[in-house]
Structure formats: structure tokens, C-alpha cells
Design a protein that fits this description.
alpha+beta
């Protein structure tokens, strides 16, 4: 295992301990709103602090970009860690056990290491560029699903997202697949595509910390990732499609206005 991946796993497990401990007494949480339907707790902040401290102790020259505290270090640093300390905060504060920690390492802007840790299920998803994707040390692959109408997709779009942001295009997609799930944690949705629990995922208006680790997992598991134009601009646009290859082609065609396929 790559040494940088080992440090990221250590950081994720340390944060997971904080989250699991807090989940035992949710009524004591202090919850604040960052925006419409966007919440933050002291657990998010404590988790990110633990992750950053662990990474910085090992790699003091690396930059850190986290959801809660923003950029620490040089914007143009060769190595940049992208951190979501608790993806699925709304689920967490409601006691719904569908949330995860996401840590990715970008080298010159390219994801090279990825960790997604679900502390409530003790499921650890990892990937190193060129070395495959794993769930708890077992290699995983995207599903073998090929028929569009049999596909199960995950989805994320904010309540304010309009058709110009892509969410309006999801209606035709949803009408032609077996089902669409909005489970509240993008990083877990992407991990579930990587291990075959979902056949694809569509997301609108997402941030780099939502996508960096999950995208590497999907690609290392044999899937495809792009924005809605079929290009590699998803980290910048926040609009992403990730899926098994056959399903990817069909969903992308539908998002671009083409006919759905059975």
C-alpha cells in the first residue's frame, strides 16, 4: 500500500472515532446553518481538524483544502489534499447512518490517492492511481450491468438547482431506469458505484471535496467519470456522471438530449 494512502487511512479512522463517539449523543450537538439546507456541526469541524493534523504531521509541505476551513497552504502546491470531514451532515444529525469521510490527494491537479470511510459500517474504500479500488482490502469492480432500463442510479441535486444546472435533465433519466436514489452522501454514492451497489451516479453543483476521492475510486474500479458534456471538467463545474461503462454511455446520451436506450 502506498505510504501516502496509509497516512490518509490513519487520518480517516481518527476522524471516524470522533464521529462515532458523537453519534451516541446527538441531542447535545450544536448545529449551525451554512446556507439553505446546508448544516455544519462541531463534529464536522473536529473531524476536519483531526484529519488535517494527521496529514500535516506527515507532510507539512502539502496544501490542504477542506470543506470547513478552506485552503491551507499554497494554491499551486504540487500536492494538495482534498477533505470532506463529514459528507452527509444532515443524515448524521437526524441519526440516519448514511455519511462518510472523504480524503483525496491531488498531485498536480490529478487525483492519485483516495479514501472514503463509512464509520457507522466500518467500511473503508481505498484507491491508488493505477492500483485498483478496494473495500476493506477486497478488490472491487463496478457492476456488470449493461441494460439502461435495469440500472439503479444515485443522484444529488440541490433544491435550488435549475434545469440550466443539469437537474432538469434527470427527469428523463429517472423515467427510464429501474430507480434513482437520493441518499444524502455523494461520497458514499460514488463509492457504491465503484463496488457495484449502484450502476451510476449523477450529481449537480458539487464541490471538489465531494468528488475527488470518489472519482478515483470509480475509475480504478473500471468505471467512467465525466461532466455532462463528456469531458473531464467535473472538478470545476461540479456536474458529474460516474457509471459502469455501458450505463455511462447511455445516461450521458440522455443527459445530452439523445433518446434513451433499453
Amino acid at each position: 500500500m502506498h505510504p501516502m494512502l496509509n497516512i490518509a487511512i490513519k487520518a480517516a479512522r481518527r476522524a471516524g472515532t470522533i464521529i462515532n463517539r458523537a453519534s451516541l449523543d446527538l441531542e447535545r450537538l450544536n448545529v449551525a446553518k451554512k446556507g439553505p439546507r446546508d448544516y455544519v456541526t462541531e463534529v464536522d469541524q473536529a473531524s476536519e481538524t483531526a484529519i488535517v493534523e494527521t496529514l500535516q504531521a506527515a507532510y507539512p509541505d502539502h496544501a490542504m483544502l477542506g470543506e470547513e476551513f478552506g485552503l491551507q497552504g499554497a494554491q499551486q502546491a504540487e500536492y494538495q489534499w482534498i477533505i470532506d470531514p463529514l459528507d452527509g451532515t444532515t443524515n448524521f444529525i437526524h441519526g440516519l447512518p448514511n455519511f462518510a469521510i472523504s480524503i483525496a490527494l491531488l498531485q498536480k491537479g490529478v487525483p492519485t490517492q483516495a479514501v472514503i470511510f463509512d464509520p457507522s459500517r466500518n467500511e473503508l474504500f481505498t484507491a491508488s492511481r493505477g492500483s485498483g479500488a478496494f473495500l476493506n482490502d477486497r478488490r472491487v469492480r463496478v457492476s456488470g450491468r449493461t441494460r439502461y432500463h435495469e440500472a439503479l442510479l444515485g443522484a444529488h441535486w440541490a433544491g435550488s438547482a435549475g434545469p440550466d444546472q443539469g437537474s432538469g435533465k434527470f427527469r428523463q433519466v429517472a423515467e427510464n431506469v429501474v430507480g434513482v436514489r437520493r441518499m444524502g452522501s455523494t461520497v458514499l454514492d460514488m463509492a457504491y458505484v465503484a463496488c457495484g451497489r449502484l450502476d451510476g451516479f449523477c450529481g449537480v453543483g458539487l464541490k471538489p471535496w465531494d468528488l475527488a476521492a470518489g472519482s478515483l475510486l470509480v475509475m480504478e474500479a473500471g468505471g467512467l467519470v465525466s461532466d455532462f458534456t463528456g469531458e473531464q471538467g467535473w472538478l470545476d463545474s461540479g456536474n458529474v456522471l460516474a457509471a459502469t461503462p455501458k450505463i455511462f454511455t447511455q445516461v450521458l446520451g440522455t443527459l445530452q438530449g439523445g433518446p434513451s436506450q433499453a
